[in-house]
Amino acid sequence: MPPVASAGPRSSSSDPARNSAADYVARLDRWLADRTSASGLDVADGTPPMFHPCTPRGMEPADRIVVSPPAQYSAVDGMPTDWHPVHLGGRAVGGAGLAMTETTCTSPDARITPGCPGIGNDEQAAAWARTVDFVHANSDAKIGVQLGHAGRGGSTKVMWQGVDDPRRGRLGDRRPVAGPPPVRRRGPAGDDARRHGTGDRRPRRRRPTRGDRIPQETGVPTMTVGAIASAEDANTIIAAGRAALCCLARPHLVDPYRTLDAAIEQDYRGHVPPKRYRPGRGARRRAQEP
What we know:
The protein is of the alpha/beta class. 27% of the residues lie in helices and 10% in strands. Strands 3-2-1-6-5-4 form a six-stranded parallel beta sheet. α2 (83-93) runs parallel beside α3 (122-138). The chain is globular. Mean pLDDT is 80; it is low at 3-12, 169-191 and 198-206. This is NADH:flavin oxidoreductase/NADH oxidase N-terminal domain-containing protein.
């Protein structure tokens, strides 16, 4: 593999250094397209890495950007509410390839807070079906569920009320209680996919580190999360083979259309917005009159 430079937006300039960088990115894109094509997937030259096809577990998302599952604390007695199709549907319409629900629990005593959703009975499943149906009917996004259990980290309050986490006693008593999430096994070959993060809360250090050994040494596709804020971040991680999918959490809270924006910024026409939004595709490029 050639040395990887940042695979960011394309530009042209009379500056030789900038033109050299753009040429490197173009050559890197061609090399990556050849690598993707060798795996049996079609991709055009010049396609940014975040829009390269991939097929984890036979699923082919429209791109490699994932809506990471930050808690919304908007369920009522475990039931998803109107907030959930608006929140997840908006991010799916905004171009993400995969939208993940927040942690969803299988029983009332498994919920992390009173505002966390469940999927432990027919009524809850039917409420989730409303969100799933909207996503499938109005976007090319896939949708997945993050199952979880509070364990001894449950709370009687939601985040903005001041979560009363029972683990937070004296400093010496604060021990991690969560290990790697369970994964579906794929026989002796290993896992179908795994999600990894750095576990580091310092923003500039939360990009993939040791977790990138999983895809590089085992071939198991991974999703990575942690301070991935831009198309440039995602393109570089994917081009380097450090993860198959990039999860964006907080960036999606302020910009549901993060992926559509990235396609416009990179002048990539292969990622098509929903038909209702196509007239606005060039609006951000148009000079504004005072």
